[in-house]
Design brief:
The chain is about 35% helix and about 30% strand. By secondary structure, the chain is an alpha+beta fold.
Length: about 230
Amino acid sequence: GWEAVGGLGTIMAAALIEDKAATTPEKTGMITLRGSTETVVEFFGYAINSILYQRGVYPPDNFTSVSKYGLSILVTKDKGLQEYLGEVLRQLKGWMMSSEVRKLVVVVASQVTEQTLERWTFDVQVNEAATTAIAVPQTQADKVREQKEIQAIIRQITASVTFLPLLDEPCCFDLLIYTDKAAKVPEAWAESDPKYIAGEIEEVKLRSFRTKIHKVDGAVAYRYGEAGA
């Protein structure tokens, strides 16, 4: 906790500083579509890594800890996975720069049966008016709020082991990106079915975060009971 140091002089100095801050107008910066896209894509990179670690899709020793958003986040050190995720995020960024992305889904499936066990869905909404501007105003308070909102989602992913069923079988994952029909799809990419969960499902809403241009809403759906039960 905070410790009081010094006497009245310290308190008066603090009061003077606070008073001055109160009368100083907040500095306003600008955010562009590119800047907002980079924020969202970077978040997706950390979120995917966190899901893969927390849900045991890869062994724990495949991950290393990094500091981001004021948190300690585990990211893969597997070169093949790094390259794959890097390629997906680069393509995602390109589509987002054209406002063609509607959602990103992380599918966790059984390696044995190939049945989908979990779907982590992140819906992407775009402020169309903001995308037509060269840049839109963004205050320091906006940046702080954005960081806190991202922090809250990452914390929810980290805490997911407390409310999601134990995955006691080898799992694999898929990344699905929902785009507008007009989006150009590279040859290496293929159209996929939605990989919905068979049987009864439960869904838990995650927190959302927003820049001045994008809003991302998260949710995780998981199988509740046996498929077809």
